[in-house]
Design goal:
Elements (H helix, E strand, L loop, with lengths): L1 H19 L3 H11 L5 H11 L6 H9 L5 H22 L4 H21 L4
Helix pairs in contact: 1-2, 2-3
Length: about 120
């Protein structure tokens, strides 16, 4: 049964990822914590592992075909993400699970409030 739930979570995250550019952090991490009882670190590590190519390949292809990818920005952000991801993971291993979970929630709360209350561009 849990395999079907995991596939369902992946489907939901894929749909939201294709539609809104979200999924891993917003859908999968909380689902792994609250449905499967994983620790914050385990759910984050699992999510990062599954996001490796080719997860976003087909969605990116659709955006590219419609002229909605800035390759220079994507490449530069990728370099920063690669380096930052390494150091961020190292830091996450040093932070207690409860603190890390609260930091995760605070970051998403700040982002959500900013997106809700700032004018659309």
């Amino acid at each position: 049964m849990s395999s079907f739930i995991m596939v369902g979570i992946g489907l939901l995250a894929g749909i939201l990822g294709g539609m809104l550019g979200i999924g891993g952090g917003v859908i999968i991490v909380p689902a792994l914590i609250y449905i499967f009882g994983m620790s914050q670190q385990m759910s984050q590590g699992t999510t990062l592992a599954l996001m490796l190519p080719p997860i976003g390949l087909l969605a990116a292809y659709v955006y590219w075909k419609n002229g909605f990818i800035n390759w220079q920005a994507a490449g530069l952000i990728c370099v920063g993400f690669l380096i930052g991801g390494f150091f961020g993971a190292k830091i996450a291993m040093l932070i207690p699970t409860g603190v890390l979970r609260r930091l995760f929630g605070i970051v998403f709360l700040i982002v959500a409030l900013q997106m809700i209350f700032s004018p659309a561009k």
